[in-house]
Amino acid sequence: MRILVGYDGSKVASDAIKLARKHAMAFAAKIELVASMDSGTNNNVQKIRAAEKNLEYAQGLFKKDTISCETHLLIRSLSPGEDLVQFAKENNIDQIIIGVRRRSKVGKILLGSTAQYVILNAPCPVLTVK
Asked: Is 33 helix (H, G, I), strand (E, B) or coil?
């Protein structure tokens, strides 16, 4: 089993990691830890390094439990939701675990909802954590 975990360093993403660890141990699953950036020019070197450090930290949490985990920093000019769904399709992912944040209706209209996009478009079951 392969589980994709969307990770951005937030509290809800950390909660998603906790649940993914439980699922990985229960199902002997491999974790694909994915962070998405919508741009990655040389001007964003600090953001890229910060994302890499976040992924490295999260990967260490899985390694403590001897859970197989690979990290992926996606910089493909797609929205995070599109990136996660495309990665899941390309890599035959069995389950996606993502954290969700509460937003007002206006906030969702203006900023969109990564979780909503993933839930509606993913090729596999999506588990959300709040």
From this structure: strand
Which ranges in the chain belong to alpha helices (H)? 11-27, 45-64, 80-90, 105-111, 114-121
- Using an 8 Å Cβ cutoff, are 48 and 20 in contact? no
Task: Name the stretches of the chain with pLDDT < 70.
Answer: 39-43, 102-112
Read off the DSSP letter of residue 14: H
User: How would you classify residue 30: left for phi > 0, otherwise alpha for psi between -120 and 50, otherwise beta?
Assistant: beta
Q: Which domains does the chain have, with CATH numbers?
A: 2-129 (3.40.50.620)
**pLDDT at position 111, please?**
46
Which of 91, 90, 64, 78 has the alpha carbon at shortest distance from 117? 78
